[in-house]
Design brief:
This protein is α/β, with parallel strands linked by helices and about 450 residues long. About 25% of the residues lie in helices and about 25% in strands. The chain has a 9-stranded parallel beta sheet with strand order 16-15-14-13-12-20-19-18-17. A 5-stranded antiparallel beta sheet has the order 1-2-9-6-7. It has a 4-stranded antiparallel beta sheet with strand order 5-4-10-11.
Amino acid sequence: MLDRDIIQGRGFRNVADGSAITGFQFDLRNPNYRGTSASLLEGVDVIIDGELIPKHVPLWSLQGKTYTLDELRSSTGVRWQLDETATITVPKPGGLSAGLHDLEVTAYLRRPYFPPHISTSPFSASAKGVIVPSSGQGKLRYGVSTYSYSGDIYTSMTMEDAFADIADMGATGIEILGEANLPGYPDVTSDWVDNWHRLLDRYGLTPTNYGAWVDTEMWKTRSLSAAEAAAQLEVDLKMAKRLGFTSIRPKFGVTSWDLDPHPVWSEAVQRSLDLAQELDIVICPEIHAPTPINHPVTQGYLDFIEETGTKHFKLLIDTGIFQTAPVDDGHEGFEEGKKRPAHLEALAVPMTDLVAVLPHVHFIQSKFFEIDDQLNDLHIPWQEIISTLVDTGWEGWLSSEYEGRREPYRGRDQVRRQHALLRQLEMAKTKASNPPVPQQQ
């Protein structure tokens, strides 16, 4: 599905010839109301960060082939269809730096049915594009939770659009929410599952974590029994395996604002461990604000790990617990003028607490709310988090979980900003930790 904006959210990247970066490119939607012959294109002015690139300079890629403007003007049989994007490549030695850039374009289309003196129509658009660096050679792996696209998926995005977005920014993992993303849950068709695996292959993505719920208070008159809770877990464990996931986050109903899980949790998980081992899936309860790491809830999970000796029950850390500033800006659950909900307060959990539990951490949800135009996160101390993970040698997934304002397409842009920020921090930390060895004379 194409974005409504002329400048598309996907496709903004540097391009290389061998090891040398030679320019950058972006994708445009045809702004006309009908498809057009490529011979009617009159070029595209590009302004990047205030620098003008005249309309005859950029190259156009249509239907798998790349053309100069002169080649387009003399072409026959080449078209820019309404359902296809044009990729615009701008020569620029060294390309663009990682991070945010201001992009303005004016595409010129000639309409042969208009009088010659007014036949060329300009179509202008502007956007902020994010150049995301490659993941580098570190031990951290980058993915995205489809929760980041809440409000967009199944409205302005298809599930395949989510795959395409994740792959476009160079991420390799996809995290989903079972009941949110699986049509007909829990009765998912074989055709849908087959298409899921085709999309994984097409976009080169790895299923990471499957979000599930154990609804302990389904009825007002009673809670779930341990057997019923285990039965819910069984459904999602088997579905996660069917889709290729290696971990599952079961969110048990809680009994307090400290997120104390319903007491049924331990027996339900105990009943599920043999199945988890058989399927080779790790069950990961979530450490989520307003509950810090140094807390009886977390200790209860750690005690369970020690008592059972299992390798199929570990922790999932939600980085919202590291917030250093509260979230007020239009976040779900916050009403201006009213008391801020506890889970939006800043816990500022220290990195020493994270280090203490990292051997038991299987997965990290990279919760965030807002990253500004300078790639500063306004709430989460990413430099401290990334430095801690690199210094300790932790290996695993960082899965972007955007939970800020929900204007259309905003989550997609914010996730790209987060990946640009985190990868730059990891590369800088890795480089600082491994300085080059001086050559002996």
